[in-house]
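Re-run requested by the PI after the first attempt was lost when the workstation crashed. Everything re-entered from the original request form. Ligand of interest: zinc ion.
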Amino acid sequence: MRIEVLGCYGAEFLRFKSCGFLIDNSVMLDAGTIVSPLDLEAQRGIREIFITHSHLDHIKDIFFLANNLFEEKGSGVKIYGTKEILKGLKRHFINGVICPDFTSIPQKRSSVISFKAIKEGEFYPLPQGLSLRAENVNHNVEAVGYIISCDHGYVVYTGDTGPTGHIWKVCNKLSNLLAVFIECSFPNGLHEMAVLSGHLTPQTMAKELDKLKEKDYPVFVFHMKPQYLKTIEEEISALNDDRISILAQGEEIDL
Ligand SMILES: [Zn+2]
Ligand SMILES: [Zn+2]
């Protein structure tokens, strides 16, 4: 699979965008950034969006994507998440007040967007040959990470999380881990802030990686707060773990 990093940061500044990862030109992991790096043709290719939680930096471009596509006669974009996550989206965001209710605007075969509630712990197969499965993580709102299965192994994407356990236990039961995408938002000096807001620092991230039995895979770090990026980079490089690299916007990863 090919993963394109449309945005990978925990805040927005010049050249730093919120999290959005495009898999095989058609499946989004989170929707913090979709439209600004993609031309209209590429935006039309997006069929499914998997949301990790309801925070705005992970959902906001659902509006901009739907707003660009709603006049077209496409077949709609499906938004996946747990029942609770989708409830938050419908009630507080795509509610006809903050954002038009795109679920009621018809297209050729469906509405512009539609919601699909998924259960944690089950793989949902997609027509492209990938399957995705949500597993609980530990953030300050209900949040899940995703395990993505392709024909030669698994990729895990944590979304936003503080120290957690369940998703790693699930990964330890699956063999052939191809890559780990893990968040790391704050430098070690802001440990308290990280705990309060349900995020990781280089120190706590390293402890999370220790929970995985398999050790032979690349680790890609995302959701850094850009204002602390230099310190986070130094602290991650001090871990002396050559599996770990810090993601950059625009990067493409083939797994
Ligand atoms: Zn976030
Ligand atoms: Zn969050």
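Saved to the shared folder this time. DSSP finds seven helices and 14 strands in the chain.
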